[in-house]
Write a structure and sequence with these properties.
The chain is α+β, with helices and mostly antiparallel strands. The protein has five helices and 14 strands. The chain has helices at 54-57, 188-203, 238-245, 252-259, 262-266; strands at 3-6, 12-15, 40-43, 61-63, 69-70, 73-86, 100-102, 116-120, 129-132, 139-141, 163-172, 178-184, 208-218, 223-231.
C-alpha cells in the first residue's frame, strides 16, 4: 500500500513496498540538498560564456556536467519552477554577483529581503538603471514580494523588467539522467508553448515526451538561436517511466533552482527578449485547447 512521505524541503514523495532486490544506500538520509547537483541542458548562443568552442557548437544543446553538445535530444518533462534573478543594468556577463534572486518568482531569497539597490526608472528616452545601493535618493529597499517590486514590472513603453523571469523545467534524458532546462529571454515564447503542452498532457493524464532542437533567427536588432519543441508520438521508454516514477511528488525543477549558483544563472542572462509581449508571474493558459480537441494520434 502506498504512503505519503514528507521530505526535508516540504515536498511529498510516494513510498511503495520495497521489491525483494531493493538495496538501500546507507547514509543517504543524512545528506542535505547542498550535497546534490542537477546539471543543466542549455541552448548555446555565440556569446554564451564559459564554453571554449562556443562558436563551433552554437545552436546545440550543451550539458553542463559532461560538456557534451547535441543538435537535438529527446527528454521526458517531469517538473517546472519559475525563478527570478536581478543583475545590474550594465551587466556584461563578466561579473556574476546577483543583486536579488528568487527561487519561486514569488518571494526573494531571505538574504535579499530588506537590502537596497539603486534604481532609476526608465522613460521613453532612457532605459531603467539598476546598480548596487549608492547611499542616495535613488536607493530602493527590495520588497518581500516579487509581485509588488517595480523591478519585476514591464515598463510603460514595453521595456522588459530589470529582474529576469525564467522557467526551469525538470527533465530526464534518454539515459535517465535528471537535468534542468531553463527558458527565458528570447526563449520565453517557447516555454509558453511547453506550458500549454504540459497543461494538455496533465488533463489527459499522459507523460510529456518531447524532442528539443533549435533554429537561427535574425531580428535585425538581435541574432540568436531559438529552441524548437516537438511532441514525440512514440511510446516513452519503460526505463524512463520507471525513473520518473521515483520523482513523483518531488519538484526536481524547484530543487535545481534552489541549488543554482549566480554563475549558472548568469550564463543565460545575457540574451534578452526583443519586441516580446509582457510576461506575467503566472502561467498563461489563454492558448490552451480543451484536451478533447487534440487529435487521437497525439501522444497524450
Amino acid at each position: 500500500m502506498n504512503a505519503q512521505l514528507q521530505t526535508r524541503n516540504g515536498n511529498t514523495a510516494i513510498a511503495t513496498e520495497a521489491p525483494a532486490d531493493y538495496i538501500p544506500v546507507a547514509g543517504l538520509e543524512n545528506l542535505s540538498p547542498e550535497d546534490f547537483s542537477i546539471p543543466s541542458m542549455k541552448l548555446v548562443q555565440t556569446n554564451t560564456k564559459g564554453i571554449e568552442n562556443v562558436t563551433e557548437i552554437a545552436g546545440q544543446w550543451y550539458r553542463t556536467d559532461t560538456g557534451e553538445a547535441v543538435a537535438e535530444i529527446d527528454v521526458l518533462i517531469i517538473g517546472i519552477q519559475k525563478s527570478r534573478i536581478l543583475f545590474k543594468s550594465d551587466y556584461d556577463g563578466g561579473e556574476t554577483k546577483a543583486l536579488c534572486r528568487s527561487d519561486d518568482s514569488i518571494t526573494p531569497r531571505a538574504e535579499f529581503i530588506g537590502p537596497s539597490v539603486s534604481y532609476i526608472a526608465g522613460s521613453e528616452n532612457r532605459k531603467a538603471i539598476v546598480s548596487p545601493a549608492e547611499g542616495n535618493q535613488f536607493d530602493m529597499v527590495l520588497p518581500a514580494t516579487c509581485g509588488i517590486c517595480p523591478l519585476a514590472q514591464w515598463g510603460k513603453h514595453n521595456e522588459p523588467p530589470a529582474c529576469r523571469l525564467t522557467d526551469g523545467w525538470g527533465a530526464l534524458t534518454p539515459e535517465c539522467d535528471p537535468v534542468l532546462l531553463r527558458f527565458g529571454g528570447s526563449s520565453a515564447r517557447v516555454s509558453e508553448k511547453l506550458r500549454n503542452l504540459a497543461r494538455a498532457a496533465m488533463m489527459k493524464r499522459k507523460p510529456l515526451y518531447v524532442k528539443l532542437s533549435s533554429h537561427f533567427e535574425d531580428k535585425g536588432k538581435g541574432q540568436y538561436y531559438v529552441p524548437d519543441i516537438m511532441l514525440i508520438k512514440d511510446a516513452v521508454p519503460t526505463d524512463l517511466i520507471d525513473t520518473a516514477s521515483a520523482f513523483i511528488g518531488l519538484n526536481l525543477a524547484a530543487r535545481a533552482s534552489e541549488m543554482m549558483s549566480d554563475d549558472e544563472e548568469a550564463t543565460s542572462a545575457t540574451t534578452t527578449t526583443r519586441n516580446a509581449a509582457p510576461q506575467s508571474n503566472e502561467p498563461d493558459w489563454s492558448h490552451v485547447h480543451d484536451a478533447a480537441e487534440f487529435d487521437e494520434d497525439a501522444p497524450f
